[in-house]
Design brief:
Elements: E1 2-11, H1 16-20, E2 30-44, H2 49-52, E3 56-61, E4 67-72, E5 76-78, E6 81-91, E7 119-134, E8 140-152, E9 155-168, H3 171-182, E10 187-189, H4 194-206
Antiparallel strand pairs: 1-6, 1-9, 1-10, 2-3, 2-7, 3-4, 4-6, 5-6, 7-8, 8-9
Length: 212
């Protein structure tokens, strides 16, 4: 298992161009990692059992044409900072591989779910532009700018986010870098993941509450 520690910030569309030009992203401490288009499909049961357990199960088509399957389990998110369990597997096709979801990582309340019970309930499609920043402390933090959309049923919502993911170092390093960015660009901490925003969109469209 990997523990994903990231900080999510919302950015206004009018600030995106200025964000890309920040000195912090264009000096010797920053390595530009390029752009890639990411298409994600999130799976759940008809009555959203995974969502109720705060579990996200998705397949992702990466910019190099490969599919990945990711499982994220219940975590905590405060002021945009989240820590969650995360597992990832390469796939040979776009099809979900249920055999990866073994009992030691698949939450107990979901143990009775069968492959046929799972279907795609929402999708995201966004361009990710990323930089790897190395701090004086030795911490390594990936900064990703995500621009695209969430699709849930007939509804859509834009994605405009900056994500900081801790690759090496301390949580204080992550918070410190976020504070530095916010000195120059208006960024707002966001505790909702793309999947959680998609569920809200989906359930509003269905006339139901996300957690009922």
């Amino acid at each position: 298992m990997g523990a994903e520690t990231e900080l999510k910030l919302a950015i206004s569309g009018k600030d995106v161009a200025e964000f890309r030009q920040l000195p912090l992203l264009n000096n010797d401490t920053s390595q530009y990692e390029g752009k890639q288009q990411l298409v994600n499909h999130y799976y759940d049961t008809t009555n959203q059992q995974l969502h109720k357990q705060r579990v996200a199960l998705r397949t992702r088509l990466t910019g190099d044409g490969h599919w990945l399957q990711t499982l994220k389990t219940r975590g905590n998110s405060v002021d945009g900072l989240s820590v969650r369990g995360e597992w990832e597997w390469p796939l040979r096709s776009s099809e979900l591989d249920f055999t990866c979801l073994t009992t030691d990582i698949w939450p107990e309340p979901l143990q009775r779910i069968k492959p046929a019970d799972l279907k795609v309930v929402l999708s995201t499609n966004f361009e990710r532009e990323s930089w790897l920043v190395t701090l004086a402390s030795g911490a390594a933090i990936e900064i990703a700018l995500d621009i695209g959309s969430i699709v849930a049923g007939d509804a859509q919502q834009p994605i405009r986010e900056v994500e900081l993911e801790l690759k090496q170092g301390l949580v204080d390093d992550l918070k410190g870098l976020a504070d530095e960015l916010m000195k120059f660009i208006h960024l707002v901490p966001c505790d909702l993941s793309k999947a959680e925003r998609g569920y809200l969109l989906l359930n509003i469209g269905n006339g139901s509450e996300a957690n009922e």
